[in-house]
Specification:
The complex is a heterodimer. Chain A is α+β, with helices and mostly antiparallel strands. Chain A has two helices and four strands. Classes of the chains: A alpha+beta, B alpha/beta. The complex binds flavin-adenine dinucleotide and iron/sulfur cluster. The site of flavin-adenine dinucleotide (FAD) has 35 residues of chain B, from helix 2, strand 2, helix 7 and strand 24. Chain B: Keywords: FAD, Flavoprotein, Oxidoreductase.
């Protein structure tokens, strides 16, 4: 599953790293690093982290089909 | 038909084309659908594959944590678009409203959004740029190649240019325990973006982490061996270093060449637009159906004296795309201005560096809170006695406070908002290297005498 964190909004409070530690981790004191290609098994954790983020900085795929959308195939 | 009827008809049956299918293009497409645009939507992009995110390329990807192909952007919704990928747009015809593709196809539109961004500035000698081991970092493919070279355990990496990307790469080399030399023409890293004071802090940080930082020097030549592999770099002070990987991090070139002859105000600084993201033509007139967003846009900001500012910032691309898309499907009275204060982040040597505002729009800078030696502080920038920007090192949660100071034109220097007043809080000159460059924007020639004849034509400069 695809994940993006708007790091200009992120305040580094680390709730996400607590709820989905394989996907979000702190780098140094307050910089957030995350896996933009998180394992699908972590979906529930990631959705919980996205819901808990106090500044709503975590964006997760909203497409029904989780595989690469056919519309983006090269022409 | 009233204009409201026209708008409804356009939203139902209109044709919108987006040129540049990356962050700004994708976010604009999603917003168009969110706002009820049901007509045909075409995404034109010269890269193959789905839109992906670039900031992780110089961070998560180069550390080896995430594969280069693993930064595809999440979709907020289906966009039901036709994708024309792997082929660049080669021209824009405003008389007939067509985008011309490089392969000769023509794509008609009622409204177009231009979001072609920037590309990496290559090393200036082509044969040297082609050496095995010489990289730039802008695309997924670039990051993949560099990550592989770093994983092979090079004896030394040379980073040419100590802006944000170059500094991030130096940081990753140290994290991976690879010896790294950074060569920078300015007196310190990040000087062009953040000024001399923060540059000194960045220089100390690099040296403390074992970077061989060389400032005030120019790399003159990259030397390869008989197999075409990079071996050595020569500096203008006569010294050389041996390195098997070089990363050219000399900033970007805006992708505007394809608009030559289109009549738009497009050039090396980007495509000029109003705060509604409508492109200006060469005469400075607003076009109605041509919109611009992202790194390629050059937008006036009233807070910065209406100067046309181009930003290469992620959040700017997202917000500008949303404003542009909204305006593409809204009537005149419902249009939004793009007035957000710029924000930027970078992660280097484990430190979270963030900025708000435009730090280059300043004459003074002062540390307002925290401690520079601990690399946990905020510095505020001022121009003629008002706050115009702030930069934080590991103190990001304070930036909203500074954003408010900027938005309300608060007096500079601002009082320290916390008890941890720094020991030395006297404003210092900001010291940017020569603002003269900014004056190079005059690229037109005025012709004709009657108001109906007077027009400008472009005078292209060689750079
Ligand atoms: C390595 C790296 C690290 C970064 N880190 C940060 C960071 O930490 N913080 C931050 O705020 N920002 C960062 N950025 C900047 C951020 O990624 C950009 O601001 C953002 O990508 C801009 O999006 P865009 O859609 O405007 O342009 P781009 O992402 O440049 O996309 C433009 C697209 O248009 C395509 N194109 C160009 N010409 C044509 C043509 N003629 N026809 C068709 N398609 C064309 C391009 O190939 C590209 O796919 C980083 C960028 C890079 C490269
Ligand atoms: S929860 Fe939100 S604000 Fe906190 S670290 Fe994660 S992304 Fe940042």
């Amino acid at each position: 599953m695809r994940v993006v964190v708007d790091l200009s909004r992120c305040q580094g409070y680390a709730q996400c790293a607590f709820l989905a530690p394989d996907v979000f981790r702190m780098h140094g004191e307050e910089a957030l690093m995350y896996d933009p290609n998180a394992d699908d098994d972590r979906r529930d954790q990631v959705l919980r982290a996205a819901a808990a983020c106090p500044v709503q900085a975590i964006l997760v795929d909203r497409l029904e089909k989780r595989d690469a959308p056919a519309e983006a195939s090269p022409s | 038909m009233t204009s409201a009827d026209n708008l409804q008809a356009f939203k139902r049956d209109g044709r919108i084309v987006v040129v540049g299918a990356s962050l700004a293009g994708l976010r604009a497409a999603e917003t168009l659908r969110d706002e009820g645009f049901a007509g045909s939507l075409t995404m034109i992009g010269d890269e193959l594959g789905e839109p992906y995110d670039r900031p992780p390329l110089s961070k998560q990807v180069l550390t080896g944590w995430v594969p280069a192909g693993g930064t595809k952007l999440p979709r907020r919704r289906e966009i039901d678009a036709e994708w024309l990928l792997g082929v660049p747009a080669g021209g824009l015809d405003l008389a007939t409203n067509h985008v011309r593709l490089a392969d000769g196809r023509e794509v008609p539109f009622d409204r177009v959004l231009i979001s072609t961004g920037v590309r990496a500035r290559p090393w200036f000698v082509e044969s040297e740029a082609a050496l095995d081991g010489v990289f730039v970092v802008r695309t997924r493919e670039h990051a993949e190649g560099l990550q592989r070279a770093l994983a092979a355990g090079p004896s030394r990496v040379l980073v040419i240019g100590a802006g944000f990307t170059g500094s991030e790469i130096a940081s990753i080399c140290r994290e991976r325990d690879i010896p790294v030399t950074v060569a920078e023409l300015a007196p310190a890293p990040l000087v062009g973006a953040l000024g001399a004071m923060i540059g000194e802090v960045a220089a100390d940080m690099q040296r403390a982490h074992g970077v061989d930082l060389r400032c005030g020097v120019k790399v003159t030549r990259l030397e390869g061996d008989a197999q075409g592999r990079l071996r050595r770099a020569h500096f203008d002070d006569g010294t050389t270093i041996d390195a098997d990987v070089a990363v050219v991090a000399l900033g970007g070139i805006r992708n505007t060449e394809w608009l030559r002859g289109s009549g738009l105000a497009a050039g090396v600084w980007g495509i000029a637009c109003d705060t509604g993201c409508r492109a200006l033509d060469l005469n400075g007139l607003i076009t109605d159906d041509i919109f611009v967003a992202g790194d390629v846009a050059r937008c006036p900001n009233p807070i910065y004296e209406y100067r046309l500012i181009s930003l290469e910032h992620w959040a700017n691309a997202v917000e500008q795309a949303e404003v542009a898309a909204h305006n593409m499907v809204s009537g005149q009275a419902d249009r939004w201005p793009h007035l957000t204060i710029p924000v930027f982040w970078s992660i280097q040597f484990g430190v979270n560096i963030k900025s708000v505002g435009v730090p280059t729009f300043a004459d003074e800078v002062v540390v307002t809170q925290g401690s520079v030696p601990d690399r946990r502080f905020v510095a505020a920038y001022g121009y003629r006695g008002r706050v115009t920007a702030a930069v934080s090192f590991n103190s990001a949660k304070w930036l909203d406070h500074y954003r408010q100071l900027i938005e309300t034109a608060a007096p500079f220097p601002p009082p320290c908002p916390t008890p941890d007043q720094p020991a030395d809080s006297k404003p210092a000159p900001v010291d940017f290297p020569g603002p003269a460059l900014l004056a190079q924007g005059a690229t037109v020639v005025v012709t004709g005498h009657d108001p109906s004849e007077r027009r400008v034509t472009a005078a292209y400069q060689h750079r």
